[in-house]
Amino acid sequence: MRALQLERLDGPEGLKLVDVPEPEAGDQVLIDVVAAGVSFPDLLLTQGKYQMKPPLPFVPGVDVAGVVRSAPPGAGVKAGDKVMAFTLLGGWADVVAAPPGMTFRIPEGWSFEAAAGTVMNYHTAYFALHKRGRLRTGETVLIHGGAGGLGTAAVQVARGSGARVFAVVSTEDKAEVARSAGADRAFLSSGDWVSRVMDATKGKGVGMVFDSVGGDIFDQSLKCLAPEGRLLVVGFAGGRIPEVKVNRLLLNNLDVVGVAWGAFVTQKPQLTSEISKALAALADKGFVEPLVGKVFPLEQAAQALRELESRQATGKVVLRLREG
Asked: Matching Pfam families, A to Z (predicted)?
């Protein structure tokens, strides 16, 4: 089968299209991949900067959508089902084996492209906002990177959970994407967005910040949290891992909360089913509907990764492998 394999830790340039044997099914769900998500962890993996460092060569790809070829007993899906799955590795290939507990039927009416970037982003968003952030109905949530795949997922989950949603983005075009995802307000990161957030909350600040950017954004976010506010540390797309002086937390009774969905569900896999049901309910109500950005053929995965690296991407960037 075709697979896009990382042969060198040179970033996207280390990828090469190769022929490799198809995976063995074992106790996994075997999926003929139609579309695969392109994510920030994929980019970090190609650079050797992700916390997981698989030996070279390996096939990246954490999210896929496709058709089940075979499934073990009790998997919850069967041959012929259209599914989306979290694979961690191996998704950028014609066929992939996925854990049964991380494989879900695609909701009616969704395209394979929409489903391809759903599991990691939406499960992460729900886990962050509800399990780690303890989101309360009526709170105001500020979401950084609100036009990207993870950001739009967080916007939709927060709005579907009854929150007022603000987004911080880098351009006016991205502000429009964030608003189309459901954000009530969108602020440009190049301006004095902290003052604008404080004005929009009449000086009270927001109850929660969803931060997948890090760096200076993290430092500024502490300034617009309301007393007892929570800052969710989801990632560091900006490149710099920030530090915090804890006296700033003490003065306003603030929480800085770590969010690592993948690590958590590895230890407590039963949470996956709970989150899946909650997201399905939000999808039924029209709140969860993935925004697809650019779609590339498998051969152009390096270009897709560069879209993420340059912060040009909006919505979920996807690879198309075959017709569904």
From this structure: ADH_N, ADH_zinc_N
Q: Which residues pair with 83 in a beta bridge?
A: 66, 105
User: From CA 78, how far away is CA 76, in angstroms rounded?
Assistant: 7
Q: Summarize pLDDT for 258-311 with one digit per residue, the tens.
A: 999 988 988 888 899 999 999 999 999 999 999 999 999 999 999 999 998 888
Nearest CA to 210 out of 166, 261, 173 is that of 166
Regions of the chain where pLDDT drops below 70 = none
Q: Which of 167, 107, 171 is nearest to 143 (CA)?
A: 167
Parts of the chain belonging to CATH 3.90.180.10 = 2-118+291-320
* φ and ψ of 66, to 5 deg: 180, -155
Say whether 197 sits in a helix, a strand or coil: helix
Tokens of 117: 């970037």
CATH class, range 121-262 = alpha beta
- To 10 degrees, what angle do helices 40-47 and 301-309 make? 100
Q: Using one digit for the tens of pLDDT, what is the confidence trace for 268-281?
A: 888 999 999 999 99
Element (H, E) at 323: none
Structural domain 2-118+291-320, CATH architecture: Alpha-Beta Complex (3.90)
pTM, to two decimals: 0.94
DSSP state of 148: B
